[in-house]
Amino acid sequence: MATTSPTETTGERVVVLNPVSGAGDHPETVREHAEDYGYDVLETEEEGDAIELTRDAIGDGATEIAAAGGDGTLNGVVRGVVEAEALDDVTVGVLPCGTGNDFAANVGVTGIEQGFEVLEAGERRRIDLGFADGDPFVNSCVGGLTAESSAETSPALKDQFGTFAYVVETLRAIPSFDGIRLTARLSDADADAPVWSGTAIAVLIGNGRRFPPSGSTQANMEDGRFDVTLVHGTGSVDLMETAAVERLLGRESDQTSRYTVSGLEIEVQEADPVSFSLDGEIIERHELSVRNEPRALTFAVGERYEPIPGGEE
Ligand SMILES: Nc1ncnc2c1ncn2[C@@H]1O[C@H](COP(=O)(O)OP(=O)(O)OP(=O)(O)O)[C@@H](O)[C@H]1O
């Protein structure tokens, strides 16, 4: 693993830099600003490095860690903080250098330089953290036909639909899809736990984001709850048109069920396990237990971040 240390840094403020995220044209800009703002830069060399670099940095005294990459890099940093048992000691920030930068936008961070400004002077908020069988996610956990097509998913589509773009892309690529038979036991402190059972195209669990047909995707990240959207049915829907996707995710759609819950247990009734994407990092499971740890992570947020997003009902 390559490590570079600009002069006069103390190891307390660290950037974990993924040099290959997004278009890969950001490392120099990140390094320049890191030097100006007094951050050490730790560069990943291969998958999974962000976790170890973060853990080691915390061991060396880091208290402020910025992820320069996409959602996957941020997920690695958060996982490193969790593994170091340092959730109460460390502030995490994001420098958007990925393709979609979905989470960064949801916390009001829109560019590298502005990201450093937010780290320097932005508000710190305690935000909810999702855990899927113990693995953390900040933005979303998406199950279904999501993993296989991520490489081909176009940046334009990712910009428009975020993580859901993977589902759309996969359904476009295959003529028919039988769906996944599953049971989801939803739990919440102040509601009867509903149980959903049926055939689903996708299970969309948003922590930092919601999955609306259009408009702002920022979720309430401080309420201890997830926005869950179950998309029913099979791949026979025509998803070639943007309008069809918007209808599919729309509030009136009879192909979606929406819940706001603090956790859920998913059981897949299929021979093969199902892929779940935790902020873009893929795991495969027949069963998955998802829970929300309220306000577990200290995050540096931009001015556009709204604790209670405007569009929320
Ligand atoms: N040096 C590296 N070489 C190859 N892969 C890496 C390296 N560093 C990190 N990775 C991997 O790159 C993957 C993608 O990272 P990330 O999600 O941050 O970027 P992205 O996919 O371009 O952006 P977004 O998630 O916003 O679409 C992660 O799974 C991570 O493990």
TrEMBL record:
Keywords from the UniProt entry: ATP-binding, Kinase, Nucleotide-binding, Transferase
GO CC annotation: plasma membrane
UniProt-listed Gene3D superfamilies: 2.60.200.40, Probable inorganic polyphosphate/atp-NAD kinase, domain 1
DAGKc domain ranges (all copies): 8-136
Protein origin, superkingdom: Archaea
GO molecular function, one term: ATP binding
Protein name per Swiss-Prot or TrEMBL: Diacylglycerol kinase family lipid kinase
